[in-house]
Structure formats: C-alpha cells, structure tokens
Design a protein that fits this description.
homodimer, 215 residues, alpha+beta, 10 helices, DNA-binding
Chain lengths: 215, 215
DNA sequence: CCGAATCCTGGTAGATACTG
DNA sequence: CAGTATCTACCAGGATTCGG
C-alpha cells in the first residue's frame, strides 16, 4: 500500500504523496468539521465509490492524519477523526479552496451543495482582518442543513448544526441569498427587501456578516 | 480532455479538478521560478514520464494556468510560463509544502534534490515576521546549482542562478549545512567551525539568514 | 537535439453487487 | 452500518519513435 512516490526531497512532493490522491483532500475537508462515521462521509461525498472511501480512510490512518475509533457500546458505530497532524492541513486546504473558488459562480448541473462544502466556503471566505475585536455567533440555516459560525477575537470556528445562543440567525427562504451576499452581487438591503432571507437578531449584524465572509 | 469531476460545488473540489492530478502541482512549483522549456522541466522532474509531462502542460494551458510560447528565431525552443492565475497558486503550494516538510528530515534513497525543490524549501521556510525592515540579498551555492534570495521589506523573491550583487554568499563545501542551519540542528558557528560552508560577506548576515529561513 | 506522439502494460478509479 | 468483492474503464509508467 506504499503510495506512489515522486522521487524528490521536497515538502510539496511529500504532501502530495500523502494527500494528493483523488478524494483524499475532500475527505480531510469533511473531517475538519469533527468526527464522522463512514456513512456520514458517504453522504457528504455522494460521488465517491465506497471502496475508494474505505481505501483512503485506511491511508489517512496509516499516514497519521486520522484515527479510527469504535464508539462505546450502544452506538454500534465507527468514527473517523482527524489527528492534530491532519488538522494542520487546514491552512493548505483553505488556500487551495480560495484559489479554486475564483471560478466558482454557479453550480454545474448535478453538482451537490453539501453542509461540508458550504462550511468550507465560510472558512475560505473568512477575512480575519475584518474581524478585529469582533465577537459574534451566526447561525446560517440553509434549508437542508444549518451551520454556525463563531467569531471570537479574530478566530473563526465553523460547525455544522444549530447553535444554542446565536447573535444572528440567517435563514434562507428561497434562491441563493447567502452566496449572493458573500460574492457581493447583492447587499443585505437587497436580500431583505426581496424576502429571500429571514433574519432573527440585530439587522446590523448582517452587514458585519458580509464584511467577515467575502470573496 | 475534461478532467474528472467531483460533483461538488466547492472551491477545493474545483482546485483539485484543475491541479489535483499527479505531477500537476510539481510542474507549477517548477514554473514558479520563471519560464521553463520542456526539457528544463524534464530535468527538474526526473521521474515524470514524458507523455504525462506533455499531457499536464496541455491541461495547465487549457485551464489558463500556463501559457505556451515559442521563442523568436535563433532559439528554436518552446517555453512554458505561468499566467497570473497560475502564479496565484503559490500561497497554496507553500501551505502544502510547509505541511509536508514536517516529515522531511533525510532524503530517501534515490530521492533527487533539485534547484526547484530547494527553491521551494526557501519559500516554505521563509518567515516574513522575521523580515520586518530587512533588505538583504543572499546567494546560496549548493554545488550543482545556485539560488538567490532577495528579501525586500517583508517580501521574498526567490530565483535560480547567481546574483550580480549579493550581500552574502553562502557556499556549501560538503555535507548539508544549509539544511542543518534551516532545521536548527546546527548553528552558524557550528557550520563555520566545521568548515562545511564558506561565506563571503558580513558573517552577521548568516545569523539573519537563519532567522529568516527556519522550519 | 528539442518537443513531443505512440504503444503497450499495469495499476488505480468508477460502478455496483454483496456480506459480516 | 461499515465495509469487501468484482468487473470495467481509464490513467499513469516506461520505452520507443517521430517530426521540425
């Protein structure tokens, strides 16, 4: 199972030997949101063949990026979780995602929008320099899933699911208001006027949201 | 030639579709050092099959990351050069390279150390926060090749080849003093005492070099 | 000699069925 | 639920050949 090598003494080559194979980085991306079961990963990566998923998880474990852990008794389940080493890939994934997002306007036909892909887009579009001194918790409800964003003193924590005490809830009603806000093609006033979002909390926080998450 | 898709509306997925195939990122890494001919790329990537190189260059061109240009008359040659878009990948490659460099202590048997891989290691180990207000030009002679490093007001420019007016020349005589300096396993005093390097210029600049380039 | 194209082989990915 | 098995199709590796 020795992954194919590049024959170069180079950090980039080493990185590509470990996570350069097809699907590996997307698996890491999904695990960035916390421990996941095999089936969770399948759901988040609808196009991955199951043998490849299984194979990649094995490789990630061997390379020390992830651990496999059986949950205690009642939950007959196995969870995969990033190690600290695996989590350290985050900046690289963000940099790659930011570069790739440049050609990301409309989904291509058949393309899935998963909770994990949206979580990733928050990570890549986050601008720490706009967050100075800000503390705010956003809960973004996208219909099929909800994501919460905790901005605390320049740092961002993204998690999938609702938050018990958000400062602002942004709920998508129709269309793609969140994407439009983040790309700048519509303003907060636009989306509120057209009724594509419903917010709960101080409306001024929606302006802050746009400044914080912007491509 | 549509590269295989991931079926996800995600910047990271898009990035991997464009440069995720085997060898692509290493080709971009090499092109980061300026225009290169097909044969130059082959030399820098000794293990790449020629059809793959040719194929990848075509893909990079189609994706808008690189251009192919025939040199004017006497130089019967074709050069490949990154576009601005391709060059924008640099931060992502650096982040990946920095992550991969963690497991990079000794070259594995048969692994090549190329000018481009060393240039990359300078990019990844560069610490802008240690460069504040610094202006210095280093020329590092490694035997088979020479690399020059221009630090100007926090920014780093790496190029392959000598520099007409370096502030400090670091010449490797034997062993791996540069790697040892950058990893911290030896100090400037150590390598000067053992005679594994010869320097030309203010010795204090060697301390500065170590602070600037450090893993 | 440079810059590939071609051909063949073997390995990896994709799709789907199946199992402890 | 968490994978394994199997088959096919495609892509990479390696050597050789070809045209400018």
């Amino acid at each position: 199972m020795a992954t194919r090598e590049y024959g170069q003494f180079c950090g980039l080559a080493r990185a590509m030997e470990m996570v350069g194979e097809r699907w590996s980085m997307l698996i890491v991306r999904d695990l960035l949101n916390g421990p996941r079961r095999y089936t969770d990963l399948r759901r988040g990566l609808p196009a991955i063949p199951t043998n490849i998923l299984s194979n990649r998880l094995k490789q990630l474990e061997e390379a020390g990026l992830a651990t496999r852990r059986a949950l205690p008794h009642p939950e007959r389940a196995v969870v995969y979780e990033l190690t600290d080493y695996g989590r350290d890939l985050e900046p690289a994934l963000i940099a790659l995602g930011r570069w790739g997002a440049r050609t990301l306007t409309e989904p291509r036909p058949g393309e899935a929008i998963t909770a994990e892909s949206v979580a990733m887009s928050f990570r890549t579009s986050y601008r720490p320099e706009a967050a100075y001194g800000t503390t705010a918790i956003f809960e973004v409800r996208m219909g099929d899933f909800t994501i919460n964003l905790q901005v605390t003193g320049g740092a961002l924590a993204v998690a999938i699911g609702p938050h018990p005490a958000p400062d602002l809830v942004i709920e998508r009603l129709h269309g793609h208001p969140v994407r439009e806000l983040m790309s700048g093609s519509k303003t907060p006033a636009d989306v509120l006027a057209e009724g594509s979002v419903h917010i709960k909390g101080d409306p001024a926080l929606l302006d802050r949201f746009v400044r914080l998450f912007h491509f």
